[in-house]
Specification:
By secondary structure, this protein is α+β, with helices and mostly antiparallel strands. It is 27% helix and 39% strand. A 4-stranded antiparallel sheet has the order 2-5-1-6, with helices on one face. This is Nitrogen regulatory protein P-II.
């Protein structure tokens, strides 16, 4: 039985289109986006989408075969390493038991 991974990409909403483009470039069209999330990453840094700190975060979820997930993670790492500035961009991967397709 194929091994599957749940890939969660937590990112600044400004990256959403570009990251979805990376998924599409790999033929991945099945994903869920939770847009416009507000978060707090440190005690002194609140991400509250206001005039002082504009913007929001998003989470992109997808379930992929292990080998496809590893390939996408490498593409996202390359993207993150090429960025000139720091914004929210985290990748979380967990194993899943997939009973239904």
């Amino acid at each position: 039985m194929e091994e599957y991974k749940l890939l969660r990409i937590i990112c600044d909403s400004s990256l959403e289109d570009e990251l979805v483009g990376i998924l599409a470039g790999e033929g991945i069209e099945e994903y869920t986006i939770f847009p416009s999330l507000k978060g707090s990453w440190e005690k002194t840094k609140k991400h509250l989408d206001n005039h002082v700190w504009p913007g929001t975060d998003s989470i992109i979820f997808t379930v992929l075969e292990k080998n496809r997930c590893e390939k996408i993670i490498e593409k996202f790492k390359m993207k993150k390493e090429s960025m000139d500035y720091y914004i929210t961009f985290k990748i979380l991967v967990t194993s899943v038991d997939l009973y239904l397709k």
